[in-house]
TrEMBL record:
Keyword terms of this UniProt record: Lyase
Single GO molecular function: lyase activity
InterPro entries on file: ICL/PEPM, Pyrv/PenolPyrv_kinase-like_dom, Pyrv_kinase-like_dom_sf
The keyword Nucleus is annotated on this UniProt entry: no
CDD domains per record: ICL_PEPM (cd00377)
Protein name as catalogued: Isocitrate lyase/phosphoenolpyruvate mutase family protein
Annotated organism of origin: Microtetraspora malaysiensis
Stored Pfam families: PEP_mutase (PF13714)
């Protein structure tokens, strides 16, 4: 049986730059996690937005920690591959609270965590660099004390939120990434960045694996791998696509009274079978 530490070590080893990046089709509940695993995924990542939506909350630090952690535990319980959890800003107001969240994430069975520097409802779009570094440092110490080498993925939201002057955004992002790595981050996630030359420049200058967000309009896996990207995530887009099917099916049913949207649905028995032994 694979131990928690062994899963964490395996997850770390999957971050390969230069040809074979870790590919994450983010899940939002136990069933989507099993479906992604059955498709051949080597790890499962949750999407905080998809998780929040599925639990009746909006994204952006609106979901309470207890419900978020319960979902992480449910996902970790139904898959055999390593699980990394998107925990937004740590579901806490301060660094000590982030440390408590990380301990609970490990208890839930995850071996990785995303921590973002967006400050929803704060005076500025992003937390001050030193404040975020302190939160990452607290997460690092909590994980190290547990004995499980949690992979901390520091998300820098400069590009996603279009923060600051476009002419200085690269340098701002690089400075934040360096501070977070120094604080204990194992990887850097830069959602919102799809320009290949800029991605390649980040990979060259950042000392840890670089994660990008992909989807329609973004470069394909081969192009990103060629630039040295070590981790590619789909984020909330899989959940968004699933909800789009739900709306389209409802509109068709209520409009024309037909059901063609459901033609390509997964077989009931297949989904049921994936969760039969959970």
């Amino acid at each position: 049986m694979t131990t928690h530490v062994e899963k964490a070590q395996l997850f770390r080893s999957l971050h390969v730059a230069g040809g074979s990046p870790l590919l994450l089709a983010n899940a939002w509940d136990a069933a989507s996690a099993r479906i992604v695993e059955a498709a051949g995924a080597t790890a499962i990542a949750t999407t905080s937005a998809g998780v929040a939506w599925s639990l009746g909350a909006s994204d952006g630090d609106r979901l309470d920690r207890r419900r978020a952690l319960d979902l992480i535990a449910r996902v970790a319980a139904v898959v055999d591959v390593p699980v990394t959890a998107d925990i937004e800003a740590g579901y806490a107001d301060d660094a000590d609270g982030v440390a408590d969240t990380v301990r609970a994430v490990l208890e839930a069975g995850a071996v990785g965590a995303n921590l973002e520097d967006a400050h929803h409802g704060g005076p500025t779009p992003l937390r001050p660099v030193q404040e975020q570094a302190a939160r990452i440092g607290a997460a690092r110490r909590a994980a190290d004390e547990s004995g499980v080498p949690l992979f901390i993925n520091a998300r820098v939201d400069t590009y996603l939120l279009s923060v600051g002057d476009p002419d200085t955004r690269f340098d701002e992002t690089l400075a934040r990434a360096a501070a977070y790595v120094e604080a204990g981050a194992d990887g850097v996630f830069i959602p919102g960045l799809t320009d290949l030359p800029t991605i390649a420049a980040f990979v060259e200058k950042v000392a840890v694996p670089v994660n990008v967000l992909a989807g329609p309009g973004a470069p394909d896996v081969a192009a990103l791998a060629e630039r040295g990207v070590a981790r590619i995530s789909l984020g909330s887009s899989v959940a968004q696509a699933a909800y789009a099917v739900a709306r389209k099916a409802a509109l068709e049913l209520l409009g024309s009274g037909t059901y063609t949207t459901l033609t390509d649905a997964l077989d009931y028995g297949e989904i049921n079978g994936l969760l039969a032994n959970s």
